[in-house]
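re: that complex we talked abt at group meeting.

here r the seqs, copy pasted straight from the sheet so there may be weird spacing, ignore it
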Amino acid sequence: MANSAKKEKLFDKILRDIEEVKIQGARNIAKAALKAYLIFPSKDSRERLVSARPTEPMLQNILDKAPKFSNKKLFAHFDIAQGRINNSVFKIIKNGDKIFTHCHSTNVVNSLIFSKKKGKRFQIYNTETRPLFQGRKTSKELSKAGIRVTQFVDSAFATAIEKDSKNDKIFANKVFIGADALLKEGIINKIGSKIIAELAFYHKIPFYVVADSWKYTNKKIPIEQRKINEVWNKAPKNIKIKNPAFEFVPKKYITKIISEYGTLSYSDFVKKIKK
Ligand code: RUB
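got the structure back, here u go
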């Protein structure tokens, strides 16, 4: 196969894997999109990659940075930011914590595995994340790292989070959630995140967003609507199906955001990023 045909094949494969959520999570998507863009750096490639997952400012930001910075510097950012996030998450986790998480966030998962390796003892409550079950990926990775994981269906959000005062049992005492987009007034993350935030707020459980600052944007970000057959394949024709992939979580629910800038209130984080 000629070299250019090989390159085209690789570009198309990355694009398809992003669209089909084989490559998932803002950080992995941005990394893969940069790899694809560098094969064919053009306006057209950029548009195709951005529209593959439209709720991903990190993807957009990194492609905007691509002409201005070396590839080495851009790729290095992911690990530098993650390393700083890991150290901050480690400080926040206390032995005996029961941490609730949702979907699959590399920023969250890596920091939990780092904390476990450095000796913290805690357990995870996790929801499966219909329709694509990214929660199972989280459960498998954490369990492989020796972390105790309890998996719930999404409808068990309240049960997995709430305090059972009658039996003097506290379920989750902290929530760690990733982010796709960091905006001035709050974040966008996987569908389900808002109800988790509301429950945490109601039960006075700290709600932490764990996210690389390159997910920040001033732009208006659309919520990706995915194919309806992910929800119900061959559903009766007269039933309308909606499949929003993400939702907005207002900053009033966010106890702190943990990024490479440390652990900050959401407003302080926004101030910092705007400087
Ligand atoms: C993944 C998701 C993750 C964020 C952050 O959604 O909502 O919480 O992307 O992930 P999807 P990361 O599976 O639809 O891509 O920390 O890996 O950037």
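couple things i noticed - Residues 9 and 15 are 10 Å apart (CA to CA). The pocket of ribulose-1,5-diphosphate is lined by residues 21, 24-28, 103-108, 134, 178-180, 189-190, 245 (CB under 6 Å).
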